[in-house]
Specification:
Helices cover about 10% and strands about 30% of the residues. The protein has about 350 residues and is of the alpha+beta class. It starts with a helix and ends with a strand.
């Protein structure tokens, strides 16, 4: 009994709430009766009560008190919010899967170099000459002698491999070789397109080795057509420039139906004939010396209807043909009673 009183006293000293104290006081009174130790504990409990406190017996209620050890639901949980209704979303389209693209191999890093320059094909250098021939080696196939006349023969023209200016080749003509009588002779250049040449300068070296040479020179702005023997001496047009003795320079024109003189106008057989020109101009040039056995340079320029002539670099004269000028044509060599005469280094240059 003393142990219970001791525990009861300790409990009373620690628990002060009025309701608990009342319950303990009533229990002790019922359990201990008039025990002096219990009454002492009751007196300590009363001392903790308010002076106005009146002990009463609790009135039992019909509602049972729920057990205090049942956990209450947490109060800090927010109430659920209204979940938005999803809108009609278009179904996703099928995205094509990427195909496997081959990855090119990466080049191994190395020293940086400049790309190699693309080689440029060489451009052809335009030929500044319409014709250039030094007759070394042989006589080219584009050269053709005029032969439509009874006195002419192809053997009167010849190539000489050592008669040229510097000991090279040269083209020669002998009017009277092998008993021939080819007083007039014409060698024509008939290369492709040559008869369409218009404005140009033609130059050639000429050698007259003996006193028998009479006239030798150039044919220019010339045209040629093949004709039958019945049309003897035909068909040729163009100009001649001839060098003669005593420093004489002569310019001649072949006669046509539109541009003729005297009997040639009355006789068509004398028109377009290689051996029937008429003289446009003839002059003695004091500044030149046409010596035998020496080379001389003859040059002619034709531009439009103008004709200019030089001998050994000395200007001879200019003639302007205002009647019926020949405005295009090829070149060649013209001789008269020469035995022999040589030609070398012909050059034809277009004029701009």
């Amino acid at each position: 009994m003393p142990d219970n009183q001791a525990r009861t006293g300790a409990a009373m000293r620690h628990f002060r709430p009025p309701l608990i104290a009342l319950l303990l006081l009533l229990g002790l009174m019922l359990a201990c009766g008039q025990d002096p130790g219990a009454q002492g504990a009751i007196a300590e409990v009363r001392a903790t009560l308010r002076p106005t406190f009146t002990p009463t017996s609790p009135t039992p209620t019909d509602t049972p008190i729920p057990p205090t050890d049942t956990p209450l639901p947490p109060t800090d949980t927010p109430p659920p919010t209204d979940t938005p209704v999803p809108t009609d979303t278009p179904p996703p389209t099928d995205t094509p899967l990427p195909t496997d693209t081959p990855v090119p191999p990466t080049a191994t890093a190395g020293p940086t170099r400049k790309p190699a320059a693309t080689p440029v094909p060489p451009t052809a250098t335009p030929n500044p000459f319409l014709l250039r021939d030094n007759f070394d080696g042989s006589l080219g196939g584009a050269w053709k002698p005029f032969l439509n006349y009874w006195r002419l023969a192809d053997w009167n023209w010849f190539w000489d491999g050592g008669a040229g200016v510097n000991g090279g080749g040269a083209l020669g003509h002998n009017c009277c070789a092998n008993g021939g009588q080819a007083e007039d002779a014409l060698m024509m250049y008939l290369g492709e397109g040559a008869e369409s040449w218009k404005d140009y300068r033609v130059e050639v070296d000429i050698l007259v080795p003996t006193e028998k040479g009479q006239w030798q020179g150039l044919w220019f702005r010339g045209q040629f057509e093949e004709r039958s023997k019945k049309e003897a001496a035909q068909w040729v047009t163009g100009y001649y420039v001839m060098l003669g003795r005593n420093r004489v320079v002569k310019l001649l024109q072949l006669q046509t139906a539109e541009d003729c003189r005297e009997r040639a106008c009355q006789n068509p057989q004398n028109q377009y004939a290689f051996n029937n020109p008429y003289i446009l101009r003839e002059e003695k040039i004091e500044g030149i010396e046409l010596t035998r056995g020496a080379w001389h340079r003859l040059a002619v320029e034709v531009r439009g209807n103008s004709i200019k002539i030089w001998v050994d670099g000395v200007f001879a004269f200019e003639h302007v043909d205002n009647e019926h000028p020949f405005l295009e044509g090829t070149v060649g060599f013209k001789t008269f009673e020469s035995e022999p005469v040589y030609y070398d280094n012909i050059v034809v240059t277009p004029l701009k």
